[in-house]
Amino acid sequence: MYMVTAYVAVSITIFVLARFSPYEWYNPHPCNEDGDVVENQFTICNSLWFTVGSLMQQGSDIAPRAVSTRVAAGCWWFFTLIMISSYTANLAAFLTVERMKLPIESAEDLSKQTEIKYGCYYGGATYNFFKDSKLPIYKRMWEFMSQDQANFVKTGKAGINRVKTEKYAYLMETPSLEYTIYRDCDLTQIGSLLDSKGFGIATPQNSPYRDEISKAILKLQESSELQVLKDRWWKEKNIKNGEKCEVSKPQDQASELGLANVGGVFVILLAGLALSFAVAILEFVWKARKSASNFREPVSTEMLRALRFAVRLHGSSKKPVVRPSQDTLEHPSNYEASNSTTVPLGKGKYLM
């Protein structure tokens, strides 16, 4: 939407600038110095074609002549260069991220391959979970793990070391997993929970402390004290260097290219268009002063004549040429009394 708006705005700007700038009007037959008309190549259709050709980096057979239109065109070329380069870079990043996505993102992905081995703590809760599971995925995983006893480890530390040194995935209980990945930044969790089980504090049957302990745990949960303690011991400090480990999920796609990323280019484009309008005004005034000097009449009158034709957007892209007689140049009063509307074209040539 922003690109379409910029495209239309620049096209209209170039069209208006070409109408106002006297240097965009040229003799279509330069070999014939006595031609009767001058033309302007930037009609509204040609202006739209010129900007879209620049946007597609194909160019066009139309080229600006005046300084004002060249400034506007140059800013538009810079704008399209940055936008196309940004889009190309973002597309390349997107395709790269797609190739760098992790091959294993869930237990189902793990069960469908054999390149990465996986296992758990021998005889632990995770071991018994897979052993007794009736779900097809977990049964298939158990069959794979049980084929080779080397897939199981005797200690949790041994499983973590295998993850770091081999193509191995270690299946472990959620509390131990969270504690490990928050304190070792080289490890990450893949996929969601396989099972959900609660932990509790065991007491002898009919113990008088059971109710008190339960009330104390509920009170800590309601006051969020348990979460504060967990964050302190799980997340805040890393064993190796005392720094906090940030646990983040792998990024599945490149960031979208939004207005915040290319807003500066739009600002530069607006500034360039404003500058081109200022240059067009200077060109308009300069040519009017020169014409007034040739016709020996007030600058305001000449500016009004040229402005009156420029705002006739429904008119033709051609201007008729009238040549004042030698008597008119020698007796300016006779010319001032005439009703002709003229703008100088060049030496001895004037625009009607």
Strand and helix layout:
Elements: H1 2-20, E1 25-26, E2 37-40, H2 44-55, H3 67-100, H4 107-111, E3 117-120, H5 125-132, H6 136-146, H7 156-165, E4 168-171, H8 174-183, H9 210-222, H10 225-235, H11 259-295, H12 299-310, E5 318-322, H13 326-330, H14 332-336, E6 343-346, E7 349-351
Parallel strand pairs: 3-4
Antiparallel strand pairs: 1-2, 2-5, 5-7, 6-7
Task: Report on this structure.
The protein has 352 residues and is of the alpha+beta class. It is 55% helix and 7% strand. The chain has 14 helices and 7 strands. It has helices at residues 2-20, 44-55, 67-100, 107-111, 125-132, 136-146, 156-165, 174-183, 210-222, 225-235, 259-295, 299-310, 326-330, 332-336, and strands at 25-26, 37-40, 117-120, 168-171, 318-322, 343-346, 349-351. The strands form 2 sheets. It has a 5-stranded antiparallel sheet with strand order 1-2-5-7-6. Strands 3-4 form a two-stranded parallel ribbon. Helix 1 (2-20) packs across helix 2 and helix 3 packs antiparallel against helix 11. The chain is elongated. The protein starts with a helix and ends with a strand. The model is unreliable at 322-352 (pLDDT under 50).
